[in-house]
Amino acid sequence: MARYDAVFFDLYGTLIDIRTDEWSQAAWEALRVALNDAGAGYADGDEAKRRFDEELAREMSGHEDDRWYEPEYIPVYQRMLAAHGVDADESTARAIGWVFRHSTTSLFRLYPGVLELLEALGKAGIRTVLVSNAQSSFTRPELALLGLDKTLDRILISSEEGTRKPGPKLFELALRREGIDAKRAVMVGNDTTCDIAGAASAGIDGIYLHTEISPESDPDECPQALLSCKGADYGAVLDFVLGRD
Q: pTM score, two decimals?
């Protein structure tokens, strides 16, 4: 008999194997080009980064008392354009965010067995829910590219909800939308703080996957998790969730 009615999943490092470098000069130069193609006039990547940091700080203002507040970058890109007299709609801002994300990414793929795992959970009547710290301007396109947007039963992205892990609110939102008690859900993630401890703060069990992009300070096994796996061991996850271990 299955232990849970729903499995909550982290995304990056849990379902998607990815490598990004948001600090690279080439990424900020790509952002500058995208902004200028839309009508702005940024001189170089450094100027684009300075303006981004300024507008992001403005987006954060008024939320200093909420340590789990998650801003949305789309208004940031819109104001970066507005600073140069360009009135941009949301779709233009999303496209600019996608250009920046693509320029930072050197590896992007599903871990082997992701779709099979989600299919098996679905056949067992278990809901699959994404609970991700991310920006919708790049995460929505990435989910669509890999087919996860049609495979997952529900998607919660921190920038769309205005709150991030490890705060409990994002997990509590997922529970309410699924209409289940915390004891009927389990969180699968590769970060002991954001995923496992965060879920526990909302009363949710955790399964820890120690993958290549888990935080460097994370141990191989997480004492707070009910199950720890080396890498994306979806067979072990499925056995545990279905009570076959």
A: 0.95
